[in-house]
Specification:
The complex is a heterodimer.
Chain A (H helix, E strand, L loop, with lengths): L1 H57 L7 E8 L6 H13 L3 E8 L2 H4 L1 H5 L6 E4 L6 H6 L7 H5 L9 H4 L6 E2 L2 E2 L1 E3 L3 E8 H7 L7 H13 L3 E4 L6 H15 L5 H7 L3 H4 L2 H15 L12 H9 L3 E7 L2 H4 L10 E4 L10 E6 L2 E4 L6 H11 L2 H11 L16 H11 L3 E4 L6 H15 L5 H15 L1
Helix pairs in contact in A: 10-13, 13-20, 19-20
Chain B lengths: L1 H38 L2 E2 L8 E2 L3 H8 L1 H34 L5 H13 L2 H12 L5 H7 L17 H4 L1 H21 L3 H10 L3 H39 L11 H11 L3 H33 L1
Helix pairs in contact in B: 1-12, 3-4, 3-8, 3-10, 4-8, 5-10, 8-10, 10-12, 11-12
Classes of the chains: A alpha/beta, B mainly alpha.
């Protein structure tokens, strides 16, 4: 009996120890693995790719080999286009082993690899937890300035010429290229407007006038998504700043470059005053401040509100909930003076190559492949959004509102604001301050003060 | 000789239980805390492969940041509100369901416990609907008593929205502590109450002089547990319901940490906030434990 107990205790002890050692072992293994892997790839692969790359770019017809990894976020635009374009690219490069890292959580999942210096080669920057400006500041993205200067796509056209909107520049350098070209703006229901005899607004004056009528009928004129104030900033504030700056959008680029004078410009104050006027006239739904996009969109679809700030993805996003007979009317901006130009604030998602990519050659070839004419209509068809590649999509199977949007964005009478990403701190402060402005907690002057304080700190 | 080997065996036996726990504790608790301390000394975006050592700058900046101070205030407001709200209601329900024998006690016990089974995320979404200004239950209910339709944006005032988070938090917490107190009350020998009854003590007197002193240990544990889970976990309800808005007015330390780390890319600063949460939790636990110990001595 005693012996048995002894043995039992010993066995138990042994098992526990083994389990423990096992756990430790695998843990330290993976640690070591991570630790050795990162430097080794940096040390050995970088020179090798550089070495092979130089001659290969000279002779454009070399076969792509090795591994090539693409990271793409799957969100509102889906992954149909990615699957298609990757399959096409794979067919064109049979010796290239293409890996896909994709999904709605991929930005978080791959984060440790970006930190560890072992990122995928090619990245589509969209969705939460991935910010292009931050990635540039962190030195995660490959500088494409020189390469893009004379890089052609597979059709033989210059990539830069094929783009509807030019890439954002960071201190004169280009790191990422816009792939999607969407637009912020204001929606209404054409059917409701027809039924009630409201005039569709074309500028701020007509917007205010029709809003008074709408209000008199017991409908709240305007709703935005207060929980995510970038909706109102994107579709009201930024276009208004540009309109008030004589349609010159460089002011927004100056703001993004953290120039304090830009924030203190009269154009900014005038734009803020327009929001304050909407607030003071009681046009903004009081519920807006606390609700998220789904709620605000539902209220808009239920005709509780006549206008909504949103992006062109709205019809697609709410497709299942759109009541019968609902007819989306859209204008990119409402804050221009009568007769003034419409200002379209684009909302884009970009693509880039990782600085620590192992197969930069393939990544560049993929860029040349993606920014070709064939992909313009293919993207519009498969993702339900206009692409940033110039090309006539009117004959494609793209949804009609996408075609309409594309028309707006290529119209010479539209001022199109190119991709601009603000510093995350400044952006957050602008959002919070706009929220505070819409509920009357602060004045436009205080908005400027608050935001410039943050800009000064960030600088 | 034999005694030495027996002692060794005994120690070995104890070690087999303690060592693994200790090791896991080190890996999953001590190591991450050390890491957080380490990262709090850096200016790091959370994405970059380079970090800048800045010493205690994150901490000095933290105490100059009005949002951090507000978040601390909000945290303690939730702690105080939840302790009072949950303890009063949970004790009330526990006493009601045990001391006053009535048929549906079991049924009510289940009903009150249900919110505990629901995920906090669902509770947050649910209460968001209750507070919704246009289609929400609360405004619809209030509208019954007014001529005009009530359209209060309950979560839209920067001055008091944080108070609106108390009801869901309390509602979600009652069940568990109620069960805890029910178990404690059921352990009190019935004869005490019988004796009190014979002596002519009222229900209130019985509650005050028998129930409370005898379940004080459980109440103490409950209070400390509410405090700790609130300081560490109120992030969820805040993030689901307001994301710290409007205009940063409802941030708690946890939500501001998240905002800083993953929305504004200041991972080092966020780690410093994490350290602050740890320190404040520890201090509060110690203080609360002292206060409550004092109380229990007085009572017994």
């Amino acid at each position: 009996m005693v012996l048995n107990k002894k043995w039992a205790a010993l066995c138990l002890a042994a098992v526990m120890m083994i389990v423990l050692l096992g756990a430790c072992g695998s843990n330290s293994n993976s640690n070591n693995g991570g630790a050795t892997e990162a430097p080794s790839t940096n040390a050995t692969e970088d020179p090798s790719t550089n070495a092979t790359e130089e001659p290969s770019t000279g002779s454009s017809e070399t076969k792509l080999t090795g591994d090539f990894e693409i990271q793409y976020f799957v969100g509102g635009y889906g992954d149909k286009w990615w699957k298609k374009v990757i399959a096409d690219f794979a067919a064109a490069n049979p010796e290239l082993n293409i890996k896909e890292s994709a999904g709605p959580k991929i930005n978080e999942q791959n984060k440790p690899r970006w930190i560890g210096g072992n990122p995928p080669d090619f990245v589509y920057i969209d969705g939460p937890n991935l910010n292009d400006r931050q990635m540039v500041e962190d030195g995660q993205l490959e500088d494409l300035t020189d390469w893009l200067k004379d890089a052609n796509n597979i059709d033989g056209d210059k990539i830069l010429d094929a783009l509807a909107q030019q890439p954002q520049q960071y201190d004169g350098k280009i790191y990422n290229i816009p792939l999607v070209l969407n637009s912020w703006g204001i929606f209404w229901d054409k059917a409701l407007f027809k039924e009630k005899g409201y005039a569709e607004p074309t500028d701020f004056q007509s917007f205010l006038e029709v809003s008074e009528k709408i209000k008199a009928d017991g409908i709240t004129p305007y709703i935005h998504t207060g929980k995510y104030p970038y909706y109102i900033n994107g579709s009201i504030l930024y276009p208004a700043i540009v309109s008030n700056n004589n349609d010159d959008y460089t002011i927004l680029q100056d703001m993004a470059a953290n120039k304090i004078e830009a924030y203190q410009s009269p154009a900014v104050l005038a734009a803020l005053n327009q929001i304050a006027e909407m607030r003071d006239k009681g046009l903004i739904d009081k519920a807006a401040i606390q609700i998220n996009h789904t709620d605000s969109q539902m209220m808009f679809l239920q005709h509780k509100d006549a206008f909504i700030s949103n992006g062109l993805w709205l019809p697609n996003e709410m497709a299942k909930d759109v009541p019968e007979g609902f007819d989306f009317g859209f204008i990119p901006s409402l804050t221009q003076k009568p007769g003034g130009k419409v200002v379209a604030n684009t909302s884009t998602a970009t693509v880039a190559i990782a600085k620590n990519a192992k197969n930069k050659e393939a990544a560049k070839a993929f860029l040349q492949f993606v920014f070709s004419k064939a992909q313009a209509s293919q993207w519009a068809e498969l993702s339900g959004a206009p692409s940033n590649i110039k090309g006539d999509i009117s004959s494609s199977n793209a949804p009609s509102f996408v075609k309409d949007a594309a028309k707006y964005l290529t119209d010479p009478n539209t001022v199109v604001i190119p991709t601009i990403t603000f510093n995350a701190d400044v952006d957050t402060e602008m959002q919070n301050a706009t929220d505070a402005l819409t509920i009357g907690k602060i004045t436009p002057d205080e908005w400027v003060k608050r935001v410039t304080d943050v800009v000064a700190k960030v600088k | 000789m034999k005694s030495v080997s027996e002692k060794l065996q005994r120690n070995l036996f104890i070690a087999t239980f303690i060592v693994p726990t200790l090791v896991f504790f080190f890996i999953f608790t001590i190591y991450p805390v050390m890491q957080a301390l380490y990262y709090s000394m850096f200016d790091w975006s959370g994405m970059s492969d380079t970090k800048d050592f800045i010493g205690f700058d994150n901490f000095t900046n933290m105490f100059k940041d009005p949002i951090v101070l507000r978040a601390i205030g909000n945290d303690y407001l939730l702690v105080a509100g939840k302790i009072v709200g949950i303890m009063v209601l949970a004790t009330f329900f526990a006493v009601a369901l045990t001391r006053f024998n009535f048929k549906l006690a079991g049924f009510f016990r289940s009903i009150f416990f249900i919110p505990n089974v629901i995920s906090v995320v669902v509770i947050g979404v649910l209460w968001n609907f209750i507070y919704n200004p246009q289609i929400g239950f609360l405004n619809a209910f209030l509208s019954l008593f007014t001529e005009e339709k009530v359209t209060i944006a309950w979560l839209g005032f920067t001055s008091h929205t944080i108070y609106m988070l108390l009801p869901p938090a309390i509602w979600a917490g009652i069940g568990f502590y109620m069960i805890l107190l029910i178990a404690a009350i059921q352990n009190i020998p019935e004869s005490y109450y019988e004796a009190a009854q014979l002596e002519g003590a009222s229900q209130w007197k019985q509650f005050r002089n028998i129930t409370v002193p005898l379940i004080w240990e459980q109440m103490k544990v409950s209070i400390i547990n509410i405090m700790m889970t609130t300081l560490n976990g109120s992030f969820v309800i805040v993030w689901i319901m307001t994301e710290g808005g409007p205009d940063n007015s409802t941030h708690v330390m946890g939500s501001y940490l998240y905002q800083m780390a993953f929305r504004q890319y200041h991972f080092g600063y966020a780690a410093a906030i994490g350290v602050l949460i740890l320190v404040l939790s520890l201090i509060t636990t110690v203080i609360l434990q002292r206060l409550l110990r004092h109380e229990s001595v007085e009572l017994s």
